[in-house]
Write a structure and sequence with these properties.
Layout: H1 2-13, H2 23-35, E1 39-48, E2 51-61, E3 86-93, H3 99-108, E4 123-133, E5 136-145, H4 152-156
């Protein structure tokens, strides 16, 4: 998952989109949060204004899962993006833990709140793979707008 996030961030930088996070520090934080069951999902979001344009979601599963889909070095990337798009990474807390436990982890790692983005009705949701290791798994989900993904439908459907 970390390698895939790095690949997507590198793609963004190649289009003059600067992520709103430090990649190396963020990958360490995500590893700590996931290993301690503090989070239920990770969302790498391309957005403009207050509207989601594209999202890569990594949903953590409490069950074994085989690895499938494209390699982390080859995630489905858009053929184009709006010139004013931005990139951020958000996490969702584990709903099975007390809020205070999650908040303490977020405070220690200096994670803050993020406001929800508007999700247009035309975003298409698809699971494009999974990661697995032992009794742990993660589904890889993409929310994409066909206006920016004309080649995605033929390559990954």
């Amino acid at each position: 998952m970390g390698r895939e996030i790095a690949t997507i961030a590198q793609f963004a930088r190649g289009r003059s989109i600067n992520p709103s996070f430090n990649l190396d520090d963020t990958i360490v934080d995500l590893s700590l949060l996931a290993l301690n069951d503090i989070i239920s999902s990770i969302h790498l979001q391309f957005y403009r204004g207050n509207t989601l344009v594209r999202e890569y979601a990594y949903v953590i599963l409490q069950e074994g899962r085989g690895s499938s889909g494209p390699s982390p070095d080859s995630p489905p990337l858009p053929s184009s993006l709006p010139s004013d798009v931005q990139l951020r990474l958000v996490i969702k807390r584990n709903p099975n833990l007390p809020k205070s436990t999650c908040d303490e982890w977020f405070r220690r790692l200096k994670w803050g709140s993020a406001s929800a983005l508007t999700v247009p009705a035309n975003l298409r949701r698809s699971t494009y793979g999974s990661y697995g290791s032992g009794g742990y798994g993660m589904d890889r989900i993409l929310l994409a707008d066909d206006d920016y993904d004309s080649d995605y439908a033929t390559r990954y459907r």
